Amino acid sequence: MNISKHIINKDASILDALEQLNTTTNFTLFVVDENRKVVGAVTDGDIRRGLIAGASMDDAIYSICHKSFRYIDDKVKDTPSLFNEIKKSGITLVPYLDDCGCIKKLIDLRYINALLPIDAVLMAGGRGERLSPLTDNCPKPLLPLGGKPIIEHNIDRILSFGISNITLSVRYLSDQLRGYFGDGKQIGASINYVEENSPLGTIGSVSLIEEFQNDTILVMNSDLFTNIDLEEFYTHFIETGADMSIASIPYNVSVPYAVMEFDGDKVKSLVEKPTYTYYSNAGIYMIKKSVLQQLEYGKHCDATDLMQRLIDNGKKVTSFPIVGYWIDIGRHEDYKKAQEFIKYIKR
Fold first, then answer.
1. 261: three-class secondary structure by DSSP
2. In the chain, N or C: fewer CB atoms in 10 Å?
3. Residue 116 above 80 pLDDT?
4. 42 and 91: one domain?
């Protein structure tokens, strides 16, 4: 979002503000002083009410703006709760301020579901051999799905929850991924890359990341197509006090025969053609940053290895069931299923 369109000097006239509001889509301006510090906020409704109350078009916009405006900054400890409170108030645009009170970025609440204090890592280095020949000259994450690459659906979803610090773990045809996303600024993200010189498993490359901005890390495979609610996932992770939480999907097994239950050699009951539900790893993880110290730098490690290591060390590992849709695009039939499924999704 172009921040300059939404900034106006406190000495500018109400008429100037009206003209500037006509260039915006959500009719909100932030009033700044000579140091670019935000000192107020104003909407078209505020101007209308000010004029009705007797203000002149030549009056300074500062005279009618809201001096007690809503904002978010790095000092807020419970950002998701504040975000939800602001959203419920009907505000559509909120500034994220730096330590000097200047705007770092603007958050459009019409398109953002939450503002989660999370760093994201997408695993995008696999060869995708099962999808050959489609992946012979194109990395699997960049295969098109509904008009854009598979991985872009995941990045869009991550961004919609206010997560903008993203790292892509790349290897196979990595230059194409780097070329497509660049530094991420064009989509409102900060995208960094780590390169695997050799396969490091499903989570080992996370050890190559030098720094995280937040204490919670989302790690997910980039070839998934899902509408997982990341806010609910994060809330569950925090409320359960987990060190690592694994998103899971139900897997039903139907037995076509009657199943007997025993007490020793005595039959206790008979269940006709039962269905059992198991929960499988969905390839999406929420992890405490401190836990990642258990990864050895540059060493191969699968997510299941890290889970078992944590369990063995008495750490808390939990599961978060995905309620919505989830497709692992690993085979041609999975890819076709996702291509058909996306036709019916309202985006």
1. strand
2. C
3. yes
4. yes
